[in-house]
Design a protein that fits this description.
The protein is 72% helix and 0% strand. It has one domain. With 129 residues, the protein is an all-alpha fold. The protein has four helices and no strands.
């Protein structure tokens, strides 16, 4: 099995699991950064958890029915790049800890790169719909 394609399944499961954890137990982020208040804006937290789970479902859909949904995958790459940029900014300005940056930012950029490699390998058979 193609390890890059397997990243879709793993990324989807991780997104759904992370979104669910964020939704049900947002204070778990305190384990990574004592100063971080995940409940400072519940609306943004609820929205982010829902978006994470929705993208997770999209990644799993793409895993089973690729290449018919690579447009969603590329949108996910964009969102993950933004997650990296925004978490890097917050880390550099001292708003989040290194642990939280590694959890959010590093994970986001690693999956973004993996998804780009996956799409690039399929550039000759892509269905952009």
């Amino acid at each position: 099995m193609d390890p890059w394609k397997l990243m879709l399944l793993f990324g989807g499961i991780l997104n759904i699991f992370g979104g669910f954890i964020s939704l049900m137990w947002p204070k778990v982020f305190k384990c990574f950064d004592e100063d971080f208040d995940p409940l400072s804006n519940p609306m943004i937290g609820l929205f982010s958890a829902g978006v994470a789970m929705a993208f997770g479902g999209g990644y799993i859909y793409t895993y089973f029915w690729e290449p018919h949904n690579l447009s969603l995958l590329m949108l996910g790459v964009s969102v993950r790049c933004w997650a990296f940029i925004s978490s890097f900014y917050c880390f550099r300005t001292g708003k989040i800890s290194r642990k939280l940056f590694l959890l959010v930012g590093l994970e986001a950029i690693l999956f973004a790169v993996a998804f780009v490699i996956y799409a690039y390998q399929r550039r000759d058979i892509l269905t952009w719909s």
